[in-house]
Amino acid sequence: MAQVRNRSDLGGNWWDQAFRGNAEPDPERDVYTQHLWEALPADALRNLTPEQYHALKRALQTQQKRHWLDIRGVIPLFFTQFYFVFLLGPDRRRETQEVLFERRAAVREGTAKLVGGVALTIFLTLLSLSALAVWYVFKCIVGADVLPGFSLSQYLRKIL
């Protein structure tokens, strides 16, 4: 859905185009409400009746203020602009935090499985090497020649 940021493409005053009829839209003083009006597609604005406009406006204005203190501003510099936002109010992000906790738990579970798998692999490798070492020592004590003409000690001396 393409958003129209510049309403000049509607021709004339976009408020007049969007709300034909007797009701004149009030200038928006709330940044949130103004942003929502600007974010609506031009076709949706054209199709609103004055009654629909006022109903939407009442619904947006009855929304609870989410923050006790809401300071927003822009710092203009020669080459760019920076914006700042300072919000203060009660923390109402419980649902968001629950989702984050579930995601973190899933990551912890996956990490635990990975670490457990690596630890099990290392343990089984060391156990196998230990079993081979015990078997080799036992073979040497008994004097069994499993591979005729091959000695591990002579082979290791050649390598090292």
Principal-axis shape: rod-shaped
Q: What is the N-to-C succession of helices and strands?
A: HHHHEEHH
**Mean pLDDT across every amino acid position:** 77
Give a count of the beta strands, DSSP E runs of length 2 or more. 2
Biggest sheet strand line-up: 1-2
Global structural class: mainly alpha
The percent range for strand residues is 5-15%
> How many structural domains does the protein architecture include?
2
The radius of gyration is 37 Å
N-to-C span: 71 Å
Low-confidence stretches: 1-12
Largest sheet: 2 strands, antiparallel
Question: How is this structure best summarized?
Answer:
By secondary structure, this protein is mainly α. It has helices at residues 14-18, 31-39, 42-46, 50-61, 94-142, 152-159, and strands at residues 69-76, 81-88. A two-stranded antiparallel ribbon has the order 1-2.
Structure commentary:
It is a single chain. The chain has 160 residues and is mostly helical. The protein folds into two domains: 7-88, no CATH class; 96-159. The protein is 55% helix and 10% strand. It is built from six helices and two strands, in the order H-H-H-H-E-E-H-H. Strands 1-2 form a two-stranded antiparallel ribbon. The model is unreliable at 1-12 (pLDDT under 50).
Key descriptive features of the protein:
160 residues; 6 helices
Chain-wise SSE layout:
Elements: H1 14-18, H2 31-39, H3 42-46, H4 50-61, E1 69-76, E2 81-88, H5 94-142, H6 152-159
Antiparallel strand pairs: 1-2
